[in-house]
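Hey, can you fold this one?
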Amino acid sequence: MQTPARGSPGCCDLSGASDERRAANCWAIPVLILSIIHIILVFVGDPVSFGVGVLGTVTSSIVVCGCLPTTGSSGCGYRAAEILGIITSFYFFANMILHILWWVLWSGGAHIVGAIFLVIKIASLACTVVLTQKLF
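Sure. Predicted structure:
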């Protein structure tokens, strides 16, 4: 088995793509996975996460599915991903604040499941903010 060379782009290898495009593609994958987890949280009783998860899935799908040009940071795909990234980041932040309020006020902060969901929401927010920053 051949190991990749140090500093190789790995799964983010887009031949001929700019560094910005590669970085955006790398950060879109965790945003997509965490957004799908948010969509699944609707079955646990968190309906706000469903809407946030859909926005995150659309934002990251624009990047992953190749709707961005390989060179430069211009075009409709970049602008759409930037705007959706900003909107999604705000919604992830609001969802996280609502979850903290629910966890502390109504559950007393005693549930370990609430803490796990909070970590997922914080990770989602962080990854989405970094993805959005990479698109600018």
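The chain has a mean pLDDT of 76. Let me know if you want another pass with a different chain boundary.
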